[in-house]
Amino acid sequence: MASLVDNLDMRESIVSNDSAPIVSVGTQWVVDACGCDPIKLQSLETIGSICQQVIDSLGLHVIGSPASHRFAAPHGVTMLYLLSESHLAVHTYPEHGLATFNFVCCRDHAEWPWEDELPRVLGANHVFQRVLRRGTWSNEPAPESIPGASQ
Known about the structure:
By secondary structure, the chain is α+β, with helices and mostly antiparallel strands. Helix content is about 20%, strand content about 35%. It is built from 3 helices and 7 strands. It has a 7-stranded mixed β-sheet, covered by helices on one side. The longest helix is centred in the middle third of the chain and has 15 residues, at about 45-60.
């Protein structure tokens, strides 16, 4: 029996929540890059460069310094950027040829070409992207307003 992954193209995206939320608070991109070069997945410099490209091209604002850690081989790296627009996190698994990205942004249209860039930079042979719209989906009234908040 073929798995779901066996039936996907190299560049596959799933966009959930096709309708717009009543109140949008942004979008979350969950990206898995498979078949990556293990050496590149162990490099903080390479992963940091990808993150910086995302941040620069979208005009995002980093709060403080990114947190990062390189694990002992054969394991990879973890990197986290706190953004005024939310966050960007990356975890790599060279032993599996896998890089996982989680990008949350309060802007609805902060798309980045993951499916083009990750094969080019990491040698990924498959990029699977899920896009989640975040927000309020019901017509239920909000709880009492917070004092001092603008309406």
